[in-house]
Design goal:
By secondary structure, the protein is mainly alpha-helical. Helices cover 66% and strands 0% of the residues. Helix 3 crosses helix 4 (56-74) and helix 5 (91-111) packs parallel to helix 8 (145-169).
């Protein structure tokens, strides 16, 4: 699935959410909650009262991306990557997409039911603080093209590794949340 394909589906749904932000939201929610399903994600992407409906093709595309993202996060081969525009897109737009992805991830963590226990995990709290900073990233107009590309690559890799770390580190918390509470008599 490419960034452009997801953006076309979102445009067709009349979603105000861009592809990078939508994928970031999905990733954050998958990190925070076991059983976060594609229909729930799709529902969040379609604005309340929007005249567009989720057709079979759009539903399949979102389901495929949801499943591929979950599998990439679960993989021990570090296959996961944030969904952002390809390198043929101007750097300024790619940096904006990284910022949107990062902001979407933070939203997804919160929407996925994050609680204070997440902030108490040192590595995760640091990643979330960094993601918050990246969500405000903009291209420095005084930076050379090579320096800008290098900075983009560094941020991309940090988001990739940070999301993978969050998914791995929050596994026990996700599992604990998915178990029904024991009834105490």
């Amino acid at each position: 699935m490419t960034y452009a394909q997801l953006q076309a589906v979102l445009d067709g749904l009349g979603s105000a959410v861009g592809a990078a932000e939508a994928h970031g939201c999905l990733c954050g929610a998958l990190c925070a909650r076991e059983g976060y399903a594609a229909p729930e994600w799709a529902g969040e992407l379609i604005e309340a009262g929007a005249s567009h409906q989720l057709d079979d093709q759009a539903e399949r595309v979102l389901q495929v991306l949801h499943q591929a993202t979950l599998e990439a996060l679960q993989s021990q081969d570090f296959e996961f990557a944030p969904l952002v525009p390809d390198e043929d897109v101007v750097l300024d737009q790619r940096v904006e997409a990284l910022a949107a992805w990062s902001g979407g991830f933070l939203y997804g963590i919160g929407a996925g039911g994050a609680d204070r226990r997440i902030a108490e995990i040192d590595d995760i709290s640091e990643v979330l603080r960094d993601f918050s900073e990246i969500a405000r990233a903009r291209l420095d107009p005084l930076e050379t093209a090579d320096a800008g590309e290098a900075a983009f690559s560094e941020l991309f890799e940090y988001l990739r590794a940070g999301a993978q770390l969050a998914f791995d580190e929050l596994a026990a918390l996700r599992a604990a949340r998915s178990r029904p509470e024991a009834v105490i008599h």
